[in-house]
Amino acid sequence: MRYSLEQYDKHGFLKAPKWLWLGWLFMAKAWVVFVVAGASRESGSKILTIVYPDHSMLYLGLAMGLPSIALMWLISLRSPERKWVNWIVSWGKPVTLLTVASQFSQSLYHVYLEHGAFSWVNGMTLVALLWFGIYVLQSRSVRDSLKTPALA
After folding, report:
1. What residues contact residue 37 under an 8 Å CB cut-off, 6+ apart?
2. Nearest-angstrom CA–CA distance, 52 and 84
3. pTM to 2 decimal places
4. Are 33 and 52 in contact (CB under 8 A)?
5. End-to-end C-alpha distance for the chain, whole angstroms
């Protein structure tokens, strides 16, 4: 047995690793900023202006964070009766890798707009996305947690 019994949910599905949840949350950072700005009523527009001076980048970030939000929601809804949810979650690894690649290219575009000038935010974002992409690509626990088990 590769995984302990505590790593399975009540339906027999392997729970997603914590690093996968953190990576999905990182890729949905525009949604986090959007919710925080909405929760702070008076200073919400100031927060959005500071973090996303160009509103089109906020909308693009919201669109690129949507697959991560959907996967976080759907992975918690898995059960043997919901075959369509299990099928969608089984596509989680390629969808996550595609989202990582698109956010990585967006960050490279930010570097291009700054004419290659170093920025800690862009550098840390690129490194985090690269590490998360390698983790999703290589991790056996990610692969096993996203696939649908053969339930009898």
Report:
1. 43, 44, 45, 47, 48
2. 36
3. 0.89
4. yes
5. 18
Write the DSSP assignment of the chain as a string of letters. Answer: --S-GGGB-TTSPBPPPHHHHHHHHHHTHHHHHHHHHHHSTTTHHHHHHHH-SSHHHHHHHHHHHHHHHHHHHHHTT--TT-HHHHHHHHTHHHHHHHHHHHHHHHHHHHHHHTTT---HHHHHHHHHHHHHHHHHHH-HHHHHHHSPP---
Q: Could you list the pLDDT tens digit for every one of the 152 residues in the chain? A: 688 888 888 888 899 999 999 999 999 999 999 999 999 888 888 888 888 878 888 899 999 999 999 999 999 999 889 899 999 999 999 999 999 999 999 999 888 988 988 889 889 999 999 999 999 999 999 999 998 876 54
